[in-house]
């Protein structure tokens, strides 16, 4: 019996030790799993970023980027090599790969992925909406009268005038000022960031509680909701005292043979003047106001009335003064004005309904008008464009594809300024946008000094950063074109200046290259809304010529090299205005 009790006691002691060992092992195993999980998350987040040792070496950027200055004297070295490449350029010829090196530190892959990782780690819009709903509202003084909360959807807008977006600074006052400057009576805000204008509210009013989102730039101020529009009246101004921006005279045009095809609306106006006709068409939310003798018409540009073939101005003068005595069989002429009303036929945009299997680049040198062309493509096709980078300013102003991953396949094309072989070969085709290097260099320098819509001062042009900038960036302008011609698989060359002078034909060729089905009405709508929100006001230039004799010698040599390369690749050469005179 004693032996049995001893064995039992020894067994229990061993069991206690065994259970203790199991407990310790369980705790250690849990700790190891937690450490491995944390390591897996870190590894996954950094998986797309190559090790620093594998990154290509970069030359010293210009001092304008905040880096140590580069030597500019004589503008030689790399530029001489590029000129030689252009003179003897043959597609597929063995050229020096080093000439395609990227020049901007912001293009560094590690920095780009860190920026994207930081951005996507922020709260989502859904989370923000929940926070905003739970935040007690405070009374914020409003500029206009609050009309209430109204239904709104993309197929039937409550306000059918112009549309603007600011995902960062939108306020009710900003929206009202925008609508007032364009001659509208009502301003509506939706999703906390979208501003709609109009002269007529075409939807039903709902409970004010359904407009439960604050403005992005003004907490406590109602800015609509999901499918809900907070509507304000703008300041009342007596007719005849309104001052509109962007009203411009388009010219004298012949009445189309089938006048009904233009969808013109006849407006009866006593004591008709151009000002009263423009106001009447703005009130009816039409982008065009047309005068013919004592008649006022409102409407849109159509395939039968494109406004591409103006008549002599004398025709309108004679027609308007003698129309009563003219036979009805003779054609008449309109004096046409562009009102500030936004053509609403092409304002709706969305992501591609199905993921695209082909990746199309919209490539250009910085300052060549990439943002403007993206705006035109989105208007013409109705689909968002993407970006290889992330620019918060562009995203805040309505370029929603800016936030989307550039290889997602949800955007119709992707903006890039890259020109290395590896980056070029990632794309199946490219729209290569080229602009006069003199204008491109000035536009990019303006952006670096004063942002997307600002201008550099005379003091900026006189600093040593400007010659350093030209010394580095001028050769990049040339190498960018040469590298895409060499490594690009399918290339459509588009000249910025041709888009300005013949927008519809060039935009038609771009949409055809993108395999997008686009109606003629949509192209004309894009032409009507071509300015967008990223056009610098006026054409302010420095009071002196910023380009020295040495700078012009460098740039002119690069122009010749690129022109020859384009011709050797069976493309049209550079426009004549580029070439040295």
Automatic annotation (TrEMBL):
SUPFAM superfamilies reported in the protein's UniProt record: P-loop containing nucleoside triphosphate hydrolases
Every WSC domain range: 143-235, 246-340
Keywords: Membrane, Repeat, Transmembrane, Transmembrane helix
Keyword Membrane: yes
Domain of life of the native organism: Eukaryota
Residues that span the membrane, as ranges: 17-35
Family: Belongs to the WSCD family.
PANTHER family assigned: SIALATE:O-SULFOTRANSFERASE 1 (PTHR45964:SF8), WSCD FAMILY MEMBER CG9164 (PTHR45964)
Protein name: WSC domain containing 1
Lineage of origin: Eukaryota, Metazoa, Chordata, Craniata, Vertebrata
The gene coding this protein: WSCD1
